Structures are given as structure tokens and as C-alpha cells.
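C-alpha cells as discussed.
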């Protein structure tokens, strides 16, 4: 019996998820297949229903359907509730469980793959869109001394911080232009700046740019302006490929109850990316 899984998105052609899950399945001896499904922008609910009827057991969800996946879930994990977005679904009978593995993926990549500590450190998270929403709670769970959420549009960062509630004094909102000269241990770029061909850094208008020991870009596939600027400052720098593999491993665990070894898979995907360049 082969169980069926898929990733839904638009665009989806360049998704690495089928390759990653095929490697996880081979490594752990799990009988499953995993495909990429391109879904029309107004067709997510129907595509999901069809997949469940066809016997689908679970799915990953990527841009632009993470909010809709959240709305269609009949049950949410606490971390999906905190994120307000879902990237992983599991189908159990008529139940649709919505989870969000992005934040734990980021935290594992930082701590286990890069030996980057978060406890008692000063962490800067740049951005207040979907990518930042998916990760703030798991970052805060690691007890940083301070988590600053900085955004070009301050009120969006403030709204995110307000959701953290009064339970913690360790999170604060800031606008990008108030970051000049501030020092952090870890700086994470969760803005969409790296997506643009013109490739601007979120620190474009911030002078001097904040300093950090370790800079993390959530995008992968090429060196963004954010990474370039960080390299030039002499800091340690990573792209987001490890986060992609780690969030996938957490989804695989939710579906199969087995935790794959991510290191060889990350190395293989990295090599494949390098071959393309
Ligand atoms: P995503 O789901 O990738 O987070 P999004 O929800 O559209 O996408 O959010 C994009 C984020 O990138 C926002 O935080 C946005 O800042 P604003 O809220 O001020 O729009 C940020 N962003 C996009 N382009 C930027 C730029 N050139 N400089 C700084 N921040 C930028």
C-alpha cells in the first residue's frame, strides 16, 4: 500500500519538496509517493477535496495558499494557530489537521545545523508578512533575551507583537529606520526583498546597518543583497535551504511518525542546486 502526499502551490514547478520527501521515504523505508500539484489561484479548496477523495493522506501548502489552508483546517495545532497560516495538512477520515512546521524548521536549522544559540541572545526578525508570522512563536519559545520584530511598515510589526500578548516582555516591534547602529546576535530576513530581480536589502535605507554575528536569509538558491551585505561585514551567513529541509522533515514526522536524518538530504539538495549554477 502506497500512501499519497502532495505539495500544492502556484507556482510549483521549481519546488524541491517532491525530491526531499522521496529521499526521506527511501531513507526510512516508508511506502509513499509525493507529487507537486499546480493549483489555479481560485481553485485550492476544490483541488484539496479532489486529493482527499483520491485517497491523499497529507499535503504541504505553499504560496499563495497558506491562509486558505488555515481556514479549511477542521483542527489546528497551537503553532498553526500562532502563525495564522498552515503549511502542512494531515487527513484523518473527515478531519483536516492543519499544522505549521516553518518555525520549527527555522529553529532546527539555526540550532542544530549552524550551532547558533538563541537562548538569552538578541534576535532581530525582519518582516511582518506571512514568512515572519510563521516563525515568531517558535523563536520566542527558545527564550531569547529579546526578539525585535522590525518592519518597513511599523503597524504590521506592532500587530504581530500584540498577538504575542502580555505573556512576554521579550518581544518588541520596531520600524526599520530605528535599527541604525543597533547590535544583535542573530538577524533573520523574513521579508520578500530577496525575491525581486533588482534585489534590494531590507537595510537599504538604514545607515549604519545593524550589526550581527549570524545572518539568516529565509530565501535560497542565490546570494541575496541581504546575504551579500552580511558577508561584507564579516558575519556568518546562511540561506534558507536548511529551513526548507527541516520543515519538510517535521511534516514527514507528523505524517509518518518517523524522523528522517536531514543532513544527507540537505547535502544532496545543496549539491543539486550548485550544479544548476
Ligand atoms: P511573505 O509571505 O513572503 O512574508 P508578504 O506577506 O507580502 O510576503 O510580506 C512581505 C514582507 O516583506 C513585508 O514585511 C514587507 O514589508 P511591508 O509590510 O512594509 O510591506 C517586506 N518587504 C517587501 N519589500 C521590502 C523592501 N524593499 N524593504 C523592506 N521590506 C520589504
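Sequence:
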Amino acid at each position: 500500500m502506497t500512501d499519497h502526499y502532495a505539495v500544492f502551490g502556484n507556482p510549483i514547478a521549481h519546488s524541491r519538496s517532491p525530491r526531499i520527501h522521496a529521499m526521506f521515504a527511501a531513507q526510512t523505508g516508508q511506502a509513499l509517493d509525493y507529487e507537486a500539484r499546480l493549483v489555479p489561484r481560485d481553485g485550492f479548496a476544490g483541488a484539496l477535496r479532489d486529493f482527499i477523495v483520491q485517497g491523499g493522506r497529507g499535503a504541504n501548502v505553499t504560496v499563495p495558499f497558506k491562509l486558505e489552508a488555515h481556514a479549511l483546517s477542521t483542527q489546528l495545532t497551537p503553532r498553526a494557530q500562532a502563525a495564522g497560516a498552515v503549511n502542512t495538512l494531515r487527513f484523518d477520515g473527515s478531519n483536516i489537521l492543519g499544522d505549521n512546521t516553518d518555525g520549527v524548521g527555522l529553529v532546527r536549522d539555526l540550532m542544530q545545523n549552524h550551532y547558533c544559540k538563541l537562548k538569552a541572545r538578541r534576535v532581530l526578525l525582519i518582516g511582518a508578512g506571512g514568512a515572519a508570522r510563521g516563525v515568531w512563536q517558535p523563536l520566542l519559545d527558545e527564550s531569547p533575551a529579546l526578539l525585535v520584530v522590525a518592519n518597513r511598515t511599523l503597524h504590521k510589526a506592532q500587530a504581530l507583537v500584540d498577538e504575542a500578548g502580555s505573556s512576554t516582555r521579550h518581544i518588541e516591534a520596531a520600524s526599520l529606520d530605528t535599527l541604525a547602529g543597533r547590535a544583535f546576535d542573530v538577524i533573520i530576513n523574513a521579508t520578500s526583498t530577496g525575491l525581486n530581480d533588482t534585489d534590494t536589502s531590507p537595510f537599504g535605507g538604514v545607515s549604519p546597518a545593524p550589526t550581527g554575528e549570524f545572518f539568516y536569509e529565509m530565501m535560497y538558491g542565490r546570494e541575496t543583497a541581504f546575504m551579500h551585505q552580511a558577508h561584507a561585514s564579516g558575519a556568518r551567513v546562511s540561506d534558507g535551504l536548511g529551513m526548507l529541509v527541516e520543515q519538510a522533515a517535521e511534516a514527514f514526522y507528523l505524517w509518518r511518525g518517523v524522523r528522517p536524518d536531514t543532513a544527507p538530504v540537505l547535502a544532496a539538495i545543496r549539491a543539486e542546486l550548485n550544479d544548476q549554477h
